[in-house]
Fold each of these.
Amino acid sequence: MPKRIAAFGEVMMRLQVPGVELLSQSSVLNYSFSGTGVNIASALSRFGHAGYLVTRLPNGPLGDAAAAYLRKLGIGADFVQRGGSYLGMYFLENGFGVRPSRVTYTNRLESSFNTAPEGTYDWEGIAASVDAAHFCGITLAMNDGVRGHMLAMAQAVKKRGGAVVFDCNYRPSLWGERGYLAARPHYERMLELADIVLMNEKDAMLTLGMNTEKETREDRLKALIPAVADKFAIRVIAGTHRDIHADNSHSLRGFIYKGGQFAFSRRLTFSVHDRIGAGDAFASGIIHGELEGFPPERSVNFAAAAGMLAHTVAGDTPMASEAEVFRAIDSRIGDVER
Amino acid sequence: MPKRIAAFGEVMMRLQVPGVELLSQSSVLNYSFSGTGVNIASALSRFGHAGYLVTRLPNGPLGDAAAAYLRKLGIGADFVQRGGSYLGMYFLENGFGVRPSRVTYTNRLESSFNTAPEGTYDWEGIAASVDAAHFCGITLAMNDGVRGHMLAMAQAVKKRGGAVVFDCNYRPSLWGERGYLAARPHYERMLELADIVLMNEKDAMLTLGMNTEKETREDRLKALIPAVADKFAIRVIAGTHRDIHADNSHSLRGFIYKGGQFAFSRRLTFSVHDRIGAGDAFASGIIHGELEGFPPERSVNFAAAAGMLAHTVAGDTPMASEAEVFRAIDSRIGDVER
Amino acid sequence: MPKRIAAFGEVMMRLQVPGVELLSQSSVLNYSFSGTGVNIASALSRFGHAGYLVTRLPNGPLGDAAAAYLRKLGIGADFVQRGGSYLGMYFLENGFGVRPSRVTYTNRLESSFNTAPEGTYDWEGIAASVDAAHFCGITLAMNDGVRGHMLAMAQAVKKRGGAVVFDCNYRPSLWGERGYLAARPHYERMLELADIVLMNEKDAMLTLGMNTEKETREDRLKALIPAVADKFAIRVIAGTHRDIHADNSHSLRGFIYKGGQFAFSRRLTFSVHDRIGAGDAFASGIIHGELEGFPPERSVNFAAAAGMLAHTVAGDTPMASEAEVFRAIDSRIGDVER
Amino acid sequence: MPKRIAAFGEVMMRLQVPGVELLSQSSVLNYSFSGTGVNIASALSRFGHAGYLVTRLPNGPLGDAAAAYLRKLGIGADFVQRGGSYLGMYFLENGFGVRPSRVTYTNRLESSFNTAPEGTYDWEGIAASVDAAHFCGITLAMNDGVRGHMLAMAQAVKKRGGAVVFDCNYRPSLWGERGYLAARPHYERMLELADIVLMNEKDAMLTLGMNTEKETREDRLKALIPAVADKFAIRVIAGTHRDIHADNSHSLRGFIYKGGQFAFSRRLTFSVHDRIGAGDAFASGIIHGELEGFPPERSVNFAAAAGMLAHTVAGDTPMASEAEVFRAIDSRIGDVER
Amino acid sequence: MPKRIAAFGEVMMRLQVPGVELLSQSSVLNYSFSGTGVNIASALSRFGHAGYLVTRLPNGPLGDAAAAYLRKLGIGADFVQRGGSYLGMYFLENGFGVRPSRVTYTNRLESSFNTAPEGTYDWEGIAASVDAAHFCGITLAMNDGVRGHMLAMAQAVKKRGGAVVFDCNYRPSLWGERGYLAARPHYERMLELADIVLMNEKDAMLTLGMNTEKETREDRLKALIPAVADKFAIRVIAGTHRDIHADNSHSLRGFIYKGGQFAFSRRLTFSVHDRIGAGDAFASGIIHGELEGFPPERSVNFAAAAGMLAHTVAGDTPMASEAEVFRAIDSRIGDVER
Amino acid sequence: MPKRIAAFGEVMMRLQVPGVELLSQSSVLNYSFSGTGVNIASALSRFGHAGYLVTRLPNGPLGDAAAAYLRKLGIGADFVQRGGSYLGMYFLENGFGVRPSRVTYTNRLESSFNTAPEGTYDWEGIAASVDAAHFCGITLAMNDGVRGHMLAMAQAVKKRGGAVVFDCNYRPSLWGERGYLAARPHYERMLELADIVLMNEKDAMLTLGMNTEKETREDRLKALIPAVADKFAIRVIAGTHRDIHADNSHSLRGFIYKGGQFAFSRRLTFSVHDRIGAGDAFASGIIHGELEGFPPERSVNFAAAAGMLAHTVAGDTPMASEAEVFRAIDSRIGDVER
């Protein structure tokens, strides 16, 4: 049965140089609108749910364009507010091979979303309308106003019995000099509210400051994730391990920890067209599995395949339907379909 | 010495989303015109022959555009009729890595080609003008009218001493529920007329319903192809085995069966830009070899290299000259030529 | 107060050659999705109402792309059905100066919309949800099945007290040899149900077969429109007179006939970028005026300005907000706004 | 009845900056292939004749591209030779309003056409195959080798009874310092061979050095054209007077002088998209009229309308069919055709 | 003799939707970099002088792209500082006919230029290197820091004997609620330093609060400009009167007031491709005239023609050479140049 | 400390078919301007030096566009002359996989650069302004005039104490039938003047006619390079060995021979986007290392990484900064940077 999910997050304008030229070589940009919340709400709509975005867009042509784009993605607009002056933006120059992609941000702290005053959103109304809510660590890094919104919404949803999903998504460049130390209390507050958390052992060690004497990635994961689940009383923790190979292909292996048990997905290896947003596709797969009551192994394989497919489409936002994800779970590369 | 070849087949408008976007993401299409007959006639023109297409195009801007495109490809227009209302079309969304390409057809059964009434074509005039004629299993799947045209043309050409080429090219989606059973009698009728046939062991097993206890692809081929050649008195049978690798490269190995002997090409492995139409390039290579009197081994290596090169160009239609194919037979990847 | 309006109509894929090249010169198409119903529902959404489309789209990539495009335009998807196989399409080659634009249709009679079986739509549910419904003479020309849908929906809406809007929109090429005679009974049936009708004196004379001895366009209008309103008990009739000038600019003057009185808009003269869909913008303006209770003169000036602005945007579909239309009513061409 | 016409002339690669940017602003070029002979042969093919080009193209990718483009335009390739090293090229920057378009040539004197050695073409074979031949003053300006080819072909065609058409087309920049004096003997030699000549009174005065005391353009025309016709025994002389207006529209009025009588076309005024090649469209109209035996007035109106339409299409080469030209003769600007 | 001019001003990234689509319709932007100072420095470089820009750009890809673009325009980079975080941006949606163009700014107050701390620029070094300096009222509207830079640079240049040019360029949207009143003291301070001023009677009335009982534009000009020149001891005042016509063409008439005398240019009427930046082209023409010692009438005609040409090129920045401007002074629209 | 380097060489217009289409398939070209000297001067500017180009460009739009492009690349224009008529050009069709890229040249011998008369350049002024000069074997292949310029400049720089860099860069297609024999004396003359030489063992064997009995590439290198250094008294010799793999990736290993010692870079393996100009990036790295006094091992690793990165950017010209090259020396492929 389709569920209703609201993601709280900023809409960013993505301005991408086509091909592999640099900003100093080209004169053309392709633009779209994205953000973690956008990706989550859109992916879940594509899986058959009603995905809403809770955000604030400016009036005027840029806000209109963003709103139209959200609708095109199938995202419900009921909780999209208009007001403020600016839209966050980022410029993307595609890398090639050994040359990495580059992202350059404009001043997102002045955006409509990041300057939304108290009272902008109707938390009770939102909480009454949804089965689950999604939050992310990028938003948590913005400012006290936005963090206040996050807590208010998470508490309202929790009180109404909705599931709270939190993706740790720590971005070092956003937290300034004190970094993990500055972030820790904010993360802990969200983890206390969360039912489903996206993270891996690195988040436990760096953001939460937990320790283990294990040395391999997998051993650390197995040591720390149960400890996090215990400490914060989290029902489900899921995440991925990624490897990047010399030929630019990536490998992804998902895990889910639930009911005291780990389940792992197959290790998927694949060529990468657009890496941005693929983590959100994995998260959407986990949320879908939980909303639909999949057994953990099915959830994590679904999520990993959704994450893999998100690397193969243009733009930040996952485009695969549930059927396409299932087909990809056992897929081998095939001949053209006609 | 250049020969004259007429291919009978539909012209399709190919509408391709550029890059790797989906139809629901993009707003631009690149268009061209293709079809098995188009590919064969064009490829043979590029090898130095006079390639003609026997088809029917609508009047009006779409028909004009298709006709101009055929001329650009070097295809003789003497047997292109105008009439009817519509052009068959297909939309192509490029895949990437594990995500397959998607082809979506419009209603081709209403096309000018598929609604051509009896008397549209002058079979005697065509037969008197050509050394060989090419037909394909896709056309065979359309309707009784088109099948009638095929038989009439094949018979006329055969009577005049021209070579009849038939490419089995079975497409499951075109034959409906009864599938192979529905197709079999039509295939058998064409095989009885054919001098040169493109197929492999799968066609023998599935379309023709033949059996073998062999288990490998190659053993089955060696068991069944001679049986087909005997049963239908076919002078030359040729075809390929294709493997698709995890890194999206393909391998191709061609065979030719003639005079009771098999010859095989080198197994070629290569990156793929556009897979559609590559089978027609192989067929063109076999036809060219036969028309020029190449020894079988030379024919099959030429055909395999022609097929390989067709994967590296944009669009359905092979673009390589005879010299370029010969160069590719022993080619290794080289530095830029200047 | 915002109202809810449902337009019944086909979604067409518009495939436009960019610039002024012909299909036989170019290799690129820009695509979008439109149709009279699309234009009406989108324009009314932009004026602040909830605009719905009642239509049927195929499954698969083309249907998905059309559905995404409708959402982007702000059209409510509640009554969009999926099923059938094909989407109607048209190719547009832009004219220049004395060279007219050319439109080439594909076989729209096989479209999902035009082959929708009885029972496809839930007329009672739709009628219960809307304040008004819009129909158009293009749809009326399709086939008996679609005409049956139209009547069923118009009757259901009327029974529930909703307003029925009918745009005569006679297209000669769609009605075959018997033309107006074939169309007349179908038009009369719709006019009997209609509360608001879009037409002018030519429709009265040609489609309805009415006569007048008047000689000028305006005199004929004043003679015939009241007669139509009387005969079919129509509350509001509105329409335009268009003049096309030697420098490719157009002039438009709107009229509205209501309560036994005519009101006329200013005669607007303007440069034209894209003429297709401008009539729908005028109709939307009239509907908006009626829904909002504008006095007739305000309605017709609003509608004419909306129609004028629709000539200045790319694509079939009007993009102006209510505020932009009001600003255009007294607009003179101004300097850049910044 | 369709006729066969061979035009002798160089194929130029046209490299056009899209939009109105300058070469120092853009990074993109659209390319096509044109030339007076190309335009004439293509236009006459579109009018239903068999148009051939007599020219020489280099081997290699540029020559292949040019040859494919000629075929696309419907030009017969029987007399297209391959050899030499280079293709003539010109860069086109579109003007806007008061800013004129700019054309920059590459070194065309080294082109395959302009370096074709004696014996390149089979004049007897060509002359035996055609009803008429077209030559132009641009070609005459190249070098002695090309002028030798022109005379040889014109003489061969004349001897076989074919019609010789000569378009004076004087380009000051091509004749160097001595200008008209250098050109005169070459022009006179062509005029002695010509049956149909395209020119106006300016050519008579400047190139041929003839005098008149008349002062208006029309009086001079009426005085000088009959004198030219007499002196060189020319059957038909035709040409145009062009006016360029402040709003960038052009007016064109064609004349034809035949059998001692002048006939004039309507004066046509129209917006201009691409002015290059429009003179060739007028010439093609005159040739078509003569080949079809039109009365002079019909010929000149047809030619003027063909010339007008050529200003409204992209590229140098006329694209109108005979039916479209006839429709344009009495055309007013109309609404979109659908 | 070429002179050295430094313009002080912000570099803005211009992000323009191609064609006439809206931001909510398109997915592509063309970008360039401009600003009043950019336009002035570039135009004067094209007239043969050494044009420098005094500005501050961020490090990173956007700053690199802006710097490369300035170099491409021929602007000297000696006084371009790097630092700060952001670049000012504006989005441009082209209007069509009655629909005006729309400009949407991002938050330019956070730009590298507008946050440059004291000590960023070496005023003495700059003043020692230049013959003239250019400032503009847009910059004056930013903040106290930037206004401080302006005054410091103007004073340094004046002390060294360089000419100070000030373009009033009042933009209502930048001055907030108190508008002209807030701006007046800042304007007066710049006028006291200025040798050459760009303005017209509206600036005198609105920004400076001066009065006249005259009623026509021209009478007011003649009454107020001498008064301004007297009050602030300004050597040269120049400006334009613009009219916008119903067919979207513009008329421009320039004036110059110098030595107690007015001189006026011809009234130029022309089609408009890109209006932004055309005022800077006029200013550049006046500066060029003054630097070269043109008589006033020659200066003002040169400036008006430069302004006119700037409307006919793509982008904000004038592209005409001195020779092209002189040619345009008496130009009529001509045929293509080849 | 930044140094001043002047590269002597031709500017070519590069006209590239976008994507992987052939010239006979596409209608669009991307253009830029490059050449060995352009690449060297631009790369060294990006490393912090002042890079100048000594060349000659035509007047007119193509020369203006080339000059603007050089400025955009950061190349000093002080020694760029204007004159002559033409610009050298080449067309580039991208290969794919087994299909190689194709380069087609226009007639560059008529270019402004290759027809520059004696006295075009001020050798003394140039030599007085620079610390080093760069020359290349491609230029050496042009004609006696250009070779005379090369020698004059190299001698002037050497006399003033500047370093002379010579890149052997032998292109077989440029030297005609006598090939290496024709080239040898010209190469020897340049080697006698050179301080730093780019070459490998193949140049020694083929161009210089030296012999060795060694069989492997590396053994031959170690045998011949010291011999060349001795014979011509060359301070530094550097170069690369390249391998091209079946999956189209390349491997590059650089060497440097200085003070009687060889140093080798790591063997770098990487995907290739645009191979043209990568050799110039390596050369720029070696020059940078020498100008900065890097130890040989650091120089050769820097140069190899610079060469590797140049394969990953669009266009001929290296775009990496010194910091980016250093980062790439130990780089592994990483995740997106944000």
Note: Residues 235-333 of chain E form a domain with the UDP-N-acetylmuramoyl-L-alanine:D-glutamate ligase fold (CATH 3.40.1190.20).
Amino acid sequence: MRYRDAGVDKARAEAIKRDILEVARATWSAGVRPLPGGFAGVMELPAGRPGVLRLVAATMDGVGTKLHLALAAGRVEQAAADLVYHGANDLLVHGARPLAFLDYVAQSRLDAGVVASVVRGLARACREVRAALLGGETAEMPDTYLPGVIDVAGCMLGSVDPAMLLDGSATRPGDVLLGLGSSGLHTNGYALARRIVARSGLSLSDPLPGTRGSVADALLAPHRWYGPALEPQVAHGELHALAHVTGGGIGGNLARVLPPGVRAVVRGRAWERPAVFRWLIEAGDVPEEDARSTFNLGIGMIAVCAPERAADVAAALRAAGETVHTIGELEAGAAGVAWRD
Amino acid sequence: MRYRDAGVDKARAEAIKRDILEVARATWSAGVRPLPGGFAGVMELPAGRPGVLRLVAATMDGVGTKLHLALAAGRVEQAAADLVYHGANDLLVHGARPLAFLDYVAQSRLDAGVVASVVRGLARACREVRAALLGGETAEMPDTYLPGVIDVAGCMLGSVDPAMLLDGSATRPGDVLLGLGSSGLHTNGYALARRIVARSGLSLSDPLPGTRGSVADALLAPHRWYGPALEPQVAHGELHALAHVTGGGIGGNLARVLPPGVRAVVRGRAWERPAVFRWLIEAGDVPEEDARSTFNLGIGMIAVCAPERAADVAAALRAAGETVHTIGELEAGAAGVAWRD
């Protein structure tokens, strides 16, 4: 037996890596140290207060099956950008600001065009959240991935001054829940949404009933990045906690950040659910409980703040371009989230 | 149509996440801040010199198809640990020390036993390289992954004092190449190795000709972690550069860290190739050039140091448990790597 190839075209893989590096470098601030070899990315931590420890924050996420819809609709770049927004919002929950992003892109056989779209989307979003696209890995694994699809995961690094760290210690009964509007499904609920669309008979380019756009427009709307509105509120100490509404929905993610002895009341009629959710729930005949634990239902981030500060915080968030609803409050009681009308 | 499930059993997924968190927490040092919600992991940077900027280093890697062999041999835990060693060695190349690791584990359908093995392996290796298993994501994607397999990727974070940063600036003609022995294939060349094994008719439990162990023993030997031996040499400023021999082999990875106007001469007879590589090359009839660019051939890390320091450095590395071969030197010339007998 004579060996001919290892399943990977090395010249093609190298060309893909060179293209990625070029796009990534365009996101590098002066703090990124260019190093020969690039086995790891190295960058400066932003200067903190003199003598005060700087904390490093990090989170890992995948885009999930939103990528399938994005591939079918030719909008992979946007779906990749969503992964960056997702990670940056996760950091924000603990008061941290983005610093760098590293990606993992895998396919059965690397499609240079698709990979380039992914990296362009990541790089664009990195510039927006002010992170360097510091490194990444591409993997071609025909024995692991189904043909024609792609998986993208990524790690977002950030830093936080200990004085800004949101650790839930200030959260107490009486605090108000401010819900910030989402721009669509963000990055969760796609397994269910895709199934509903497939069974509805609608194609991605068909108009979505109740909206002005197509099914693709509604389902692939970008994951909103809340940093510009929320970072000043974090810096001014206005927030007791944040919950990024991802897998698990409003209740699941609120429950994650509540201290013992505090429970949340969510008033389900306090905001109007966007048309895309109303259509999904109706077309899929989705039970209310499942809809609540699967979709964000129009609320992408929840800010917890003192009742006497809620009006000012809401006004500042609105001035920064957010849609804000007072969606409930905290009360004393066994941990958990109760929905009320 | 009534919606019944979203393809993912949420209770099962939650149970898997709880188990992961418990294992991960066992790796947390006092510097990790426990936060409700855990949207991101947050930890202290180790104290640097007073007034000196601390640099953050990060790298992303996948295990690749070594996982397939590991699954077949029931040794997934070890293959997952290899991903941690791989990332830690990548940091070492630039003088950085591990701080935290975040993983991404994806399957068509999450197998709780396999995921638990992966996380145990990651956690064990994290303790060994002194990194906190700070976060991670599990994904269940039946439309993306082939059934029965798993993909694991991970991001290793570290920090480095700017004075220790290996940036290649000290590398010059005349420098000596010290090759540190590998323990096997480490994490590269598995697409080819698996093909050769499949065509050889040998099973994983058969003895590997020329060795005392089985095919599985030889192919799944752990990826060696060179930190204990090399970190003191980095700290003492003894090294001009390091090259971690991963995809691309000895030549490909040496070339990555050479400055312009410097080329490497690798003396292919300076060390004996381990039996596993001799067998793979013979059984697969692998051309010499391909073997060199695919396998590490017994050299897992290359240290570049001044000729007058080479004997002392080699002695110190041997005292720390490494096998060390003088495998070549640098000379003036167009960048590249030349193999000589």
Note: Residues 35 and 41 of chain B are 8 Å apart (CA to CA).
